[in-house]
Fold:
Amino acid sequence: MRMKTRHKIIGQVVLACCLGLGACSQESSKSPETPAEPARVESLTIEGLNDQTWVYVSLEQGKVVGSSPLGDEEQDAAWKARTDWDFALCGELIRTNSGTSGSGNGGIQSVTNKSFNALDEAPVDGYTVDTDDRIVRR
Structure:
């Protein structure tokens, strides 16, 4: 059950980012009149997960873009300044590129009124961004 829940949460983060509501990049090569096409990630395998290392994932690139030790304040600050990642995992912890964890526009939420597989667009509001006193767990 634990792994299934983790995948559901990751899937919700992926869906929000893929549909453009959680896009972390603040730069776009397209003009404001032409919205950027949202990234589409069909499948993404994330290896190297453990309870002592943050693994940072970019949905735009469709891959892991780096890692850092849990509790390393210097590396946390460096990742916070970057916009090339969407979410990070460390054991049962999830960090989004938002709020106190990053300078992007990420967020996460639990969708309870519809099956995850039935979602065809991300909800408009209700997203939680990272704060110092809030840690998203499975």
Residues 45 and 63 are 8 Å apart (CA to CA). Residues 2-24+48-137 form one domain.
